[in-house]
Write a structure and sequence with these properties.
Elements (H helix, E strand, L loop, with lengths): L1 E4 L5 H14 L17 H4 L6 E7 L2 E10 L7 E9 L8 H15 L4 E6 L4 H9 L3 E3 L13 E6 L2
Parallel strand pairs: 4-5
Antiparallel strand pairs: 1-2, 2-3, 3-4, 5-7, 6-7
């Protein structure tokens, strides 16, 4: 397994795997990452110097990813952990932990002071991972992610 930064050639296979996982997890198509226009152009979406997206590759196949970008319509010191989804074949093997570590390291180097995430109530294992990484539940959404279907909001102070 290789964890690396996204390449333009990853766009198609990444959009397929991300949508596959969203459907499997029964995430609503409306108001979630499923309908994000950037899902088909992930490489282009992460070209800002304070953004990064990592993919997990195995035998030339993309099996998931996670990214960091500035939280839309918020202050410049808050980033968002975005689109962290993995194919079922690699879940429970420590990749979520590795990806969060890489993303948070990048966030700190990029001078963010807080990291925000939105998730779904049924994603219990993901929430446990976020809590173990120092995220805490908050009572309302931050910024404008466009993910109105995600009712669980979490925040981590980085500094």
């Amino acid at each position: 397994m290789i964890i690396r930064s996204i390449n333009k050639s990853d766009n198609k296979s990444l959009s397929i795997i991300l949508r596959e996982v969203l459907v499997e997890m029964e995430i609503p198509k409306k108001g979630s990452a499923y309908e994000d226009p950037e899902l088909d152009k992930m490489f282009e979406a992460y070209q800002n110097p304070r953004s990064i997206y990592y993919v997990i590759e195995y035998k030339n196949q993309i099996l998931g990813g996670a990214g960091i970008s500035e939280l839309r319509e918020s202050t410049s010191d808050i980033c968002e952990l975005q689109k962290m989804y993995f194919h079922k074949s690699i879940r429970g093997k420590g990749f979520g932990n590795k990806m969060i570590n890489k993303c948070l390291t990048f966030a700190i180097k990029s001078n963010y002071s807080k990291c925000y995430i939105e998730t779904m109530p049924n994603m219990i294992k993901a929430q446990k991972l976020y809590l173990n990484k120092g995220f805490e539940y908050i009572d309302k959404p931050m910024g404008n992610t466009g993910h109105t279907a995600c009712p669980v909001w979490m925040l981590k102070y980085l500094k």
